[in-house]
Amino acid sequence: MGKKKIQIKVTRLEEREIDFDLINSEFPFANAIRRILLAEVPTMAIEKVHLYRNTSELPDFALCHRLGLIPIKANNKEFEMRNSDEETDRNTIYLSIDVQCPVEYGENLHVHSDSIQWQPIGDQAERFKTDPIRPVDLDILLMKLAPSQRIDAKLECHKGIGKEHAKYCPVAACFYRFVTEFYFDQSKQLDKNELETLRTFFPPGYLDFDQIDETNGFPRIRNNRFNRSDFTMQSWNQSLREKIIFETKNNTLAFTIESIGIIEPSELVIQSIDILKSKCIKFIKCIKQNM
After folding, report:
1. Is 110 within 8 Å of 56 (Cβ atoms)?
2. Span of the secretion signal (predicted)?
């Protein structure tokens, strides 16, 4: 028999997170996807800071470093890598920040990432009319300015990948593990004290305690996916542990990806697989050329 085809089954999809099952996959394939997500999916990030004025308490180098780590919402497919000193609307984004705390303000001014303004060049204003370039989150605290203090800077964004610098990495959490499921041993009986223990230690959403099996006392299982971080079983007695069966599915990996907001989580999966595919094609061509 041939090897079974790899399948992807999405189990949870939110604005910035995705959980999916990678079925019939080997560890090297899953790890390749993880490493590509961390190091090779390109994004736009602040590469240069032209600092014209900084009278805040934050040193110039610390301010520039802090600005450089602000995630920028920009479609990576609309830009190309900058391989020369020539600046074009296809390889560069310009942002600016110019904030001063008024003397009469009387207290420190909190400067957030919404103070960063996009400065379109070329046809960027038309290309990104429906989805303007901006910081991913507008409420990131950059600094505090005392009365009369001011910062004025021009920010230059380039396209890059995570292996060059962490600021280009499009993901936060990115990991996988074997899928483990749990069942109740229907041949055993659950007493009332053990039922209360289950009620105490199982997080909401796993068991339905309103529907109890009258024959053996077990509650109905809503979600049988076992996540070790959700459970605390140290205080369970041995009798209760023997009534719960754990089964690890060796052909299924549960993948979790948390986007920082630059790229949608489902698009991250697609782009990482496309990059892996292009690597395989390049590798096959190299082999054929040397045969």
Report:
1. no
2. none
Residue bearing tokens 């790899």: 6
The per-residue pLDDT for 163 is 94
Give the C-alpha separation, 212 to 192, whole Å.
11
Helix-helix angle 265-289:27-39, to 10 degrees: 110
Stronger pLDDT, 182 or 46, i.e. the higher one: 46
Both tokens of residue 132? 């303007």
User: pTM for this one?
Assistant: 0.83
Spatial separation of the C-alpha atoms in residues 131 and 113, rounded to whole Å? 17
Cα-only R_g, the chain: 26
List domains and CATH numbers for the chain.
1-41+170-181+251-291 (3.30.1360.10), 43-168 (2.170.120.12), 186-242 (no CATH)
DSSP codes joined into one string, 131-172: S--EES-S--EEEEE-TT-EEEEEEEEEEE-TTT-GGG--EE
Question: Mind giving me the DSSP string for 229-275?
Answer: GG---TT--HHHHTTEEEEEEEEEEEEEEEE-SSS-HHHHHHHHHHH
Q: CA-CA distance, 264 to 282, in Å (whole number)?
A: 27
Q: Choose among 262, 41, 258: nearest CA to 135.
A: 262
- Vertex 17 angle, CA 13 and 20, to 5°: 55
In contact, 131 and 36? CB cutoff 8 Å: no
